[in-house]
Automatic annotation (TrEMBL):
Entry keyword annotation includes Transmembrane: no
UniProt cross-references to Pfam families, sorted A to Z: Methyltransf_11
SUPFAM superfamilies for this protein: S-adenosyl-L-methionine-dependent methyltransferases (SSF53335)
Protein name from the UniProt record: Class I SAM-dependent methyltransferase
Domain Methyltransferase type, chain residue ranges per copy: 152-199
Annotated GO MF terms: methyltransferase activity
Listed GO biological process terms: methylation
Species of provenance: Plastoroseomonas hellenica
Length: 288
C-alpha cells in the first residue's frame, strides 16, 4: 500500500509569515491532541500506519529527553522517541525516508549518497536502494573516499571525493549543524548531484529566527569559540556526542540558493496516522 506525504511547502520566511495565523491555530490543536495522548506519564502506545513497513503498526514513545512546558506538563520527544514497534525506526527517520520516496524522486535504481553510514537510517535505506553510498567523518587517518577496518567510508562534506554530477539524490540529515563551513558543504552537495538531482536535508531549525543562531565558531587560531552554552548531539561513532555550531533560521534557504540550488523550500509536516508527531516538524528540499 502506498501512502502520500502531505506537507506545507514554504519557500521563504515571508511565505511562513503570511500563513502564521492559521498555522499557529493548527499547531495548538495538534499540541493539545499530543498532550492528551501523553497525559498518563507512562509509556505511550497507539496504532497507525508505518509508511516504511507499508502496513498497520503500533507506535511507541518513551519519556527519554522529554520537554517541560511552562505550566509544568511534560511532553515526550516525539521526533526522536516515537518509534514503530515493527521496524524500530523513529518518527524523524520514517518521515525522511517517506519524503524521499514521495517527493524527492527516490527509486530503487537511484544513485544515492547519504552523509551517514553507521546509522539505522542507512540500514533502512539499503532495503530501499540498489545503489547507495554512505559515509562518516572519520578521525582515524582514513583518506577521503577510503574505508577503515570497520568498512566505513570517510568523507568530509566540505571536500567530497566524488566526481561531479553523479548522484540522483543526496540525503543529509542532522549533519550541517555540525559542519563549521556549512556553506562549503552545501556547494559540495550540489556539485555531486546530477542536473535535476534532489537534496533532502534536516537540521535544527528555528522558525522564529530570520537569521541563523551561531552557537560556536572556529576562531583565527583554529580553536573552537563558544558563543552560547555548548550543545552536543548524539554521534554513533563518538562518546560524548558532537558539537552543534548553529541552529538554522530562514536564511538557510538563501544559503541553499547561493550554493546553486533551485526550488529550495522548507516542508512542514505532521500526521497522527503515520506517527509523525511534534510541531513544528520540517524537512528541507532543493534541486540542482
Amino acid at each position: 500500500m502506498s501512502v502520500g506525504f502531505e506537507s506545507v511547502r514554504l519557500a521563504s520566511e515571508a511565505a511562513f509569515r503570511a500563513m502564521a495565523a492559521p498555522l499557529a491555530e493548527t499547531f495548538l490543536v495538534r499540541q493539545q491532541r499530543q498532550l492528551d495522548l501523553a497525559q498518563s506519564g507512562h509509556a505511550i502506545h497507539y496504532w497507525g500506519f508505518c509508511a516504511f513497513c507499508g502496513d498497520r503498526a503500533r507506535f511507541t514513545c518513551d519519556w527519554h529527553a522529554a520537554f517541560s512546558h511552562p505550566d509544568g506538563r511534560q511532553e515526550p520527544n516525539w521526533r526522536e522517541r516515537l518509534v514503530c514497534d515493527r521496524c524500530g525506526l523513529n518518527n524523524r527517520l520514517r518521515a525522511a525516508l517517506h519524503f524521499m520516496q514521495a517527493r524527492a524522486g527516490l527509486q530503487r535504481s537511484s544513485l544515492i549518497y547519504l552523509t551517514e553510514q553507521a546509522t539505522p537510517f542507512y540500514a533502512a535505506m539499503r532495503q530501499r536502494s540498489d545503489c547507495l553510498v554512505g559515509s562518516e567523518f572519520l578521525r582515524d587517518g582514513t583518506p577521503p573516499g577510503g574505508h577503515n577496518v570497520g568498512g566505513l567510508r570517510h568523507e568530509d562534506v566540505t571536500a567530497l571525493s566524488f566526481s561531479d554530477g553523479i548522484f540522483d539524490l543526496v540525503g543529509c540529515f542532522e549533519v550541517l549543524e555540525h559542519v563549521h563551513d556549512y556553506r562549503a558543504g552545501l556547494r559540495e552537495l550540489r556539485r555531486v548531484l546530477r542536473p535535476g538531482g534532489h537534496l533532502t536535508a534536516s537540521f535544527p531549525f528555528r522558525m522564529d529566527l530570520s537569521e541563523t543562531l551561531v552557537r560556536a565558531r572556529i576562531d583565527a587560531a583554529g580553536e573552537v569559540e563558544h558563543l552560547a552554552e555548548p550543545e552536543y548531539h548524539g554521534d554513533p561513532l563518538r562518546e560524548g556526542g558532537i558539537l552543534c555550531f548553529r541552529h538554522f533560521g530562514w536564511d538557510i534557504l538563501d544559503a541553499m540558493r547561493m550554493a546553486g540550488f533551485s526550488e529550495a523550500a522548507c516542508h512542514l509536516y505532521w500526521s497522527w496516522d503515520l506517527g509523525y508527531l511534534g510541531d513544528p516538524q520540517c524537512l528541507f528540499h532543493a534541486v540542482r
